[in-house]
Amino acid sequence: MTSREDALSLLGSVLELFDQHVNDNLSVRGHDAAVVGLFSRARTLLDAGRVLIEAHHAEEAMMLGRALYTESLWLMKLDAAGDERARYSLKWSMGSLQSGVKLVKTGLKQGGFTEDQANEALGYITAEQEAIQAYQRKHNIGSLKSFPDEETLAAELGRLRDLQPFLFGHHMVHGSEVSHVWRRELDPETGHYRVAWESHDEAVDAAVAAFLGRSALYSNQATCHIVGWPEPATFDELLAETSRLEEMATNH
Fold this sequence. Notes:
Blueprint: H1 3-19, H2 33-54, H3 58-81, H4 85-110, H5 115-138, H6 150-157, H7 163-174, E1 184-186, E2 193-195, H8 202-227, H9 235-251
Antiparallel strand pairs: 1-2
Helix pairs in contact: 1-2, 1-8, 1-9, 2-3, 2-8, 3-4, 3-6, 3-7, 3-8, 4-5, 8-9
């Protein structure tokens, strides 16, 4: 197979690990609700990234890889936190709700929400925040803790090898000069640029697939640990395949 075919095959195999649990009914404690959402997003971000690579948009798949990397670090941190997991997950939930307040108020100001809709949404957010605080008191959960930044978490959790592609994904999201590299081609004869709609660089396909696949694998593993599922038997094999793809990309 070509490195492109290998890349798509890897992502398909990793997706199968998630799909093994598609019909599982999760019974988790209240503070682990975030784990369920992060697990689901890991699967959908991976699948969307695969679709983009298949459509010759591997660089755009890096945008999704950026989010997947961050959220895989959160899941790994929740797994490693043990008895302190609730302090991190509840803090994340509170922060997410608070950011929703700005979203609603902006929507109201710009006409995206009616006043009644905004009041209903803000009432929901307040009720959820109060429920979290009540849960925290009921279960004697200490002061809440924020997730460290990606670089700190990567160093702590052994994920520094993927920090560079994460930062590359950051450039893709924000449209810096770096993000234009594969979107234009210089005609050496005229000195003019022409638009490049697609990327057919199999080394890029392989590198992006390795990045996506590794983050998804660690997300899956951490979730299995937290909810009590058996760890996938093929985890080590697929993790090794991400390294092989990465080496293929480097030596292309």
